Input
Amino acid sequence: MDASCQRETPVAATETTDTQLLRQARLGDKQAFAAIYRLHHKRVYALCLRLAGQPSLAEEFTQDCFVRLWEKLDQFRGDSQFSTWLHSLSVNQALTSLKKHQRFWHRFQPFALGTPEPTCQDAALQDTSLLDKKIMQLPERARIVFVLYAIEGYSHGEIATLMHITQGTSKAQYHRAKMLLKEMLS
Output
């Protein structure tokens, strides 16, 4: 068997597994849903960590994504791979969770003396690359745009729609993130 066949087997197996597990989960099988969680939670967590910038928020947002997935299982039509659909659902849910978190803490902002530097030396944070650590230090809006554009491959138009901003603002935030990262890494 050549190397290309070996690489394709896990993907094909995952797609088959996803299809079977989805069918069972739609019927209310919680163990099948738990298996879906085990198969996909690391990727969803990584996305949430990059968007949230904090491990504790990433854990919370990951749970929000999977609660939302449970609620929307019947809406997956199979037009794309399940992992692609889950990724899109996760981006939307993570952004929604981030907005809710901001609205809650925004009430207390007048009492804050500024944004403290992240001090969490969490194991998840230590395992990330230097670039990931620097991305987490970016201002929130610039970080979200950078992650969605440079890492996740969204266009500025898609980002503008997701974040309810203009394409120009998306481009400006991306440029800002690149300049800040360049400074941090030099």
About this structure: Confidence is low (pLDDT under 50) at residues 1-9, 107-127. DSSP finds nine helices and no strands in the chain. The radius of gyration is 18 Å.
